[in-house]
Design a protein that fits this description.
single chain
């Protein structure tokens, strides 16, 4: 037994040897930001409560000692009750205090969706920056967001019966847009500036098509919802959006982490990657598919939230280095922190009016994008 323990310990240390102090600092700091932002979020609304009351509601023992409550929230009433029965748990309804009911039923989904959206967009941006070897790449800049947005608007306005497939539909639209960007930018290869310009072209065209779709909507409510959605908003999200995004997030983030080694090799250049035995185009295609699915998942539940995929990987890279195993994990924590903070600002800046979170991320991301362009220009990379 002692020998087995001694053998397992070095293996465990080897498995986590890439986890260092800068990465832990990013992860723990981001977690703290999300926690504080979440407590602020669940404190405000028509029924306002103090931070201490919000804290008590979030960690109410009535919720945490009755797993069937959480199962019903995360899986839905029907599936959650069935899961509780299969696990041998009580299926009886639990009476929650008023504050706890408001926090968990109404306000908590907004915090969780912000976390899922931030993680997906940040991871997607990190992958695109490696696949294109372009520091300026992100789902928003490369037109993927516009393609996914057009596909979702088309579904909401014309094919509403397919709404349950929104993440996959968004991924399909994003994939088409990304393929168009590559086709436009390709000229015996691509360059950072051609990819960015091609992304601007595709985004402009798809954005115009999105606007045109509004004229085919008969329901004014659908139009208003679509307009708010195109600016990226977490207003009105509920557990349905959590249940829609969570399964795909549990697919995209681990797959990206598994592909971290391949992403590191891609950064060395195509010639080096091929000399190491990598099928470059196949790996690039597979990883791009994961990035498109991640971006599509975020867009399906929150609309077009711009620049998160650009800002977060770049800032995390400055803190933890360029190794993609660290970068993916750091981005998966820092992305939720940025979106959570931006959503708090969007909600409280002009209270009681709530701004779309995409406006805040755009105000942050626009100047940062300009800074990156000037930096690359100074380095002679543009």
């Amino acid at each position: 037994m002692a020998g087995e323990t001694g053998t397992a310990s070095p293996r465990f240390r080897d498995a986590i040897s890439w986890v260092d102090t800068p990465l832990l600092t990013v992860c723990l700091g981001s977690f703290a930001v999300v926690l504080i932002s979440g407590l602020v979020q669940v404190s405000f609304g028509t029924f306002t409560m103090s931070l201490s009351a919000a804290w008590g509601a979030v960690f109410d023992p009535v919720v945490w000692t009755n797993p069937q409550v959480l199962l019903r929230l995360f899986l839905g009433d029907g599936l959650g009750t069935e899961a509780a029965r299969m696990l041998g748990l009580s299926t009886h309804e639990v009476d929650l205090p008023k504050e706890t009911l408001i926090v968990w039923r109404i306000r908590m989904p907004r915090v969780l969706v912000a976390v899922l959206v931030g993680a997906n967009l940040a991871v997607s941006g990190a992958v695109f920056q490696a696949v294109t070897r372009n520091e300026l790449a992100s789902p928003y800049i490369l037109g993927v967001s516009s393609g996914a947005g057009l596909a979702i608007l088309l579904t909401l306005i014309v094919f509403a019966e397919l709404a349950f497939m929104l993440p996959l539909i968004a991924a399909g639209g994003g994939a088409v847009a990304f393929a168009l960007v590559y086709a436009i930018a390709w000229k015996g290869g691509t360059t950072p500036v051609r990819l960015v310009l091609a992304g601007v072209i595709v985004s402009t065209v798809f954005g115009s098509l999105q606007t045109a779709l509004f004229f085919f909507a008969d329901d004014l409510g659908v139009v208003q919802t679509a307009i708010a959605w195109t600016t990226g908003s977490l207003t009105g999200v509920d557990w349905e959006q959590v249940r829609m995004a969570l399964p795909w997030t549990l697919v995209t983030v681990p797959l990206t982490l598994i592909g971290a080694r391949q992403l590191n090799v891609l950064l060395l250049g195509e010639r080096t990657a091929r000399s190491l035995g990598m099928s470059v185009e196949r790996v690039r295609f597979a990883l791009s598919g994961v990035a498109v699915l991640a971006a599509g998942t975020a867009i399906a539940v929150a609309g077009i939230v711009g620049f998160v995929g650009l800002i977060v990987p770049h800032m995390v890279r400055q803190l933890v280095g360029s190794d993609y195993k660290r970068l993916v994990v750091g981005s998966a924590f820092a992305g939720p922190a940025l979106v959570a903070v931006a959503d708090v600002g969007a909600r409280l800046a002009l209270s009681p009016t709530q701004l779309p979170v995409g406006i805040l991320t755009g105000l942050i991301g626009g100047p940062y994008f300009l800074y990156l362009m000037r930096r690359q220009d100074a380095l002679g990379e543009l």
